[in-house]
Amino acid sequence: METFKNSMRNDAAAQRRRSARLGAVLVCGVVALGCLPADAQTQRISFGFEEPAWTGVPGEVVDDSTFGLDGVAVGGATTANATPVVLTDPGTCRYGVFDGANGYVEVADNAALDITAELTVAAWIYLRSTPTELHTIVSKDTNFEYHIDSQRRVYWWWNDSSNTTRSITGTTQLALNQWYHVAITYESGAQRIYVNGTLEGTTASHAGMLATNALPLFVGTDWNFPSRIFDGYIDEVRVVADALTAAEVQALRDETHPCANTAQFTI
């Protein structure tokens, strides 16, 4: 039975990657209210977290982008489907579960993640507790760190190419036990935070390029800060080498896909 499940998972991952290689036109066919804006070259990470479970095997967290930057679940992070963002098929299906103590996903450094000029990072998040300091959504250390702060606002921190530290904070205090789509976009002279597709934090004062590094990318924690492990659910993680427009961020928010494990839904 386990071999059969793994085969189903691998076949589904292969199909999603084949679709991604065809670019945004085909992907539009599985989007509920818009078209996926990131084409096959600019989309560097695409995690749907559709695996039936994670057990800590390298490569088991499947990246659906053409780059295939699969990750590994650490510390007991796993998936569930009882409380998805969209409880339909197509929908958002399964999601990652992070315990606030040990669990996260790690992706090895790769040249495809050396994004310097334009960047978008987006995800659905569901907070189960208020951070005492920060809970990390996605981080690649100095390149970008994208957190929830102690007031439950989106907090984004990065270094520019001259090693100057920058940051921007959103205005919405996120409620606990509720899904939110949160996104950040970077281009020289314009950095923006979106919550549920609405622009709520912006600055035009930071110009230049983003710093890069040789560190892993993390979902649910930050490099060398175990106290920042996320407590809640994360889904539909995207890292894009482009500064998406508001309409494109909204298209990411509205994206759905077929649920490979529909029979396993728990309500």
What this model shows, in words?
With 267 residues, the chain is mainly beta. It has a single domain (2-264), classed as Sandwich (Jelly Rolls), CATH 2.60.120.200. The chain is 12% helix and 32% strand. It contains 3 helices and 15 strands. It has helices at residues 2-21, 24-27, 246-254, and strands spanning 43-47, 72-74, 78-80, 95-99, 104-107, 119-127, 134-139, 145-149, 154-159, 165-169, 179-187, 190-195, 198-203, 217-219, 231-240. The strands form 2 sheets. Strands 1, 3, 4, 6, 11, 12, 13 and 15 form an 8-stranded antiparallel sheet that branches. Residues 1-37 and 262-267 have low confidence and may be disordered.
Name some characteristics of this structure.
seven-stranded antiparallel beta sheet; mainly beta; globular; 3 helices
Q: Identify the CATH class.
A: Mainly Beta
Mean pLDDT: 85
Helices and strands, in N-to-C order? HHEEEEEEEEEEEEEEEH
* Main sheet overview: 8 strands, antiparallel
Q: What is the CA–CA distance across the termini?
A: 24 Å
- Gross CATH architecture: Sandwich
Shape: globular
The level of helicity is 10-25%
**How many domains in all?**
1
By CATH, the topology is: Jelly Rolls
Nearest-angstrom radius of gyration? Answer: 17 Å
- Residue runs with pLDDT of under 50 for 5 or more positions: 1-37, 262-267
Q: Which class do the helix and strand fractions yield? A: mainly beta
Residue share in β-strands: 25-35%
Can you count the beta strands?
Answer: 15
Oligomer: single chain
